[in-house]
Design a protein that fits this description.
Elements (H helix, E strand, L loop, with lengths): L6 H23 L7 E6 L9 H6 L3 E6 L4 E5 L3 E7 L4 E7 L3 E6 L4 E4 L3 H5 L14 H5 L16
Length: about 160
């Protein structure tokens, strides 16, 4: 019986490992320089943990920014926990790596996008994820709180 190498799944595992490694370093040493992250994730993933008001407001997907203020970053094998500030309301989140849809560090024009079979059926290009350059004005914006943003401007 012939078998195929599942390059797509292997690539996703490697990319999630990269995110885990980066977040582990940040949890130990903080964010260096101008680095910051836009992380889009599936809020309906069964292992995502977030406040009810956030899941009600963002029932399908949500993008958070880790930049100036974050707390309690705890990086595990399957996901990470972090507390972010939403309008002066600190909220703990748990995000499994397999719930992440995009991970972008606009300070260095680096991005990862996780494709799914559903994305490919919708007509998206099935090529492997490529780094996505941000809009300059977004990369230069300084935010003091976590915020939800649209990453459409980062997609080609």
């Amino acid at each position: 019986m012939a078998r195929d190498i599942d390059y797509g799944n292997l690539m996703h595992q490697a990319m999630r490992g990269l995110i885990r490694t980066v977040l582990s370093d940040v949890s130990k040493n903080g964010l260096p320089g101008a680095h910051h992250f836009f992380i889009t994730f599936d809020t309906s993933h069964p292992d995502v943990e977030l406040a009810d008001w956030l899941s009600d407001r963002y029932p399908g997907e949500m993008t958070v920014v880790m930049q100036h203020w974050y707390d309690n970053l705890d990086v595990g094998e399957e996901g990470f926990a972090v507390t972010l500030n939403f309008g002066d309301s600190p909220e703990p989140l748990y995000i499994p790596y397999d719930a992440i849809k995009t991970f972008v560090d606009p300070s260095v024009e680096f991005g990862l996008r996780f494709e799914t079979a559903e994305d490919e059926e919708d007509g998206d290009d099935p090529k492997p994820p490529q780094p996505s350059p941000p809009e300059p004005e977004r990369a230069e914006a300084q935010k003091t709180d976590a915020e939800v943003v649209s990453l459409d401007s980062f997609r080609k």
